[in-house]
Amino acid sequence: PIQFLFIGSMGYRKGTDLLLLALDRLRSEIDFRLTLIGFAADTEFLARLKSRTSAELWERVSILRTPPTSEVIEHMGRATMVLFPTRADTGPVAVKEAVIAGVPVIGSVMGGIPDYVAPGRNGFIFPTGDLEAFTDAIRKACSHPLFSRGLVDPAALADVRERLSPRRMADGFLRIYQGLAKGPASRTS
């Protein structure tokens, strides 16, 4: 089965409802397992979702609350795809980690996700909060010749690894700090 992975706080902001509703719709089409790795889980929110989704879905879901980093890495290594339907984010670390690891990402057009996910090359993006579009993106990814096997376009992987490399990040921060050190007058010109 396809191994879906979600890493983050479980709640409305991170789109956990969209994730579970979309997969509930796809449960008869796709053989999958979902691992939810949550660093903060809204238990009441999950209970409401359980009442809105099928028992068959929950038989395929594993929830891990605050596992050690080594376990998170193991799950990332086994994942076919990372699903990230967030409604509020800036530059989600889980998405950066997935694209650098070469794991396809299906994510919302939120924060930095469009900067990391090249549609059709290392995943798909969809309009934030759009359940239909998210469901279709998952379906499309599961029939994609690379993504369905947990693979991405090698050129897209090389590109994102270069753009998110520690050297490039350090150089960018250094330029910012140097500009700040020159004082406000130098930033306005």
Would you write up a description of this structure?
By secondary structure, the chain is α/β, with parallel strands linked by helices. The chain is built from ten helices and six strands.
Count all strands and give the number.
6
Could you say which structural class the secondary elements and strand pairing correspond to? alpha/beta
Largest sheet geometry: 6 strands, parallel
Poorly predicted runs of 5 or more residues:
none
**Backbone CA Rg:** 18 Å
Number of helices: 10
- Spatially, the strands of the biggest sheet line up as 3-2-1-4-5-6
Shape: globular
Tell me the strand percentage band.
15-25%
Write down the secondary-structure element order. Answer: EHEHHEHEHEHEHHHH
The amount of helix comes to 40-55%
Average of pLDDT: 93
Assembly of the depicted chains? single chain
User: In whole angstroms, how far apart are the ends?
Assistant: 56 Å
Describe, in short, the structure shown.
With 189 residues, the protein is of the alpha/beta class. The protein has helices spanning 16-26, 43-52, 55-58, 69-78, 93-101, 113-116, 131-143, 154-163, 166-181, 184-188, and strands at residues 2-7, 32-38, 61-65, 81-84, 105-108, 123-126.
Give the SSE layout.
Blueprint (H helix, E strand, L loop, with lengths): L1 E6 L8 H11 L5 E7 L4 H10 L2 H4 L2 E5 L3 H10 L2 E4 L8 H9 L3 E4 L4 H4 L6 E4 L4 H13 L10 H10 L2 H16 L2 H5 L1
Parallel strand pairs: 1-2, 1-4, 2-3, 4-5, 5-6
Helix pairs in contact: 1-2, 1-7
Features:
alpha/beta; 10 helices; six-stranded parallel β-sheet; 16% strand; 189 residues; 6 strands
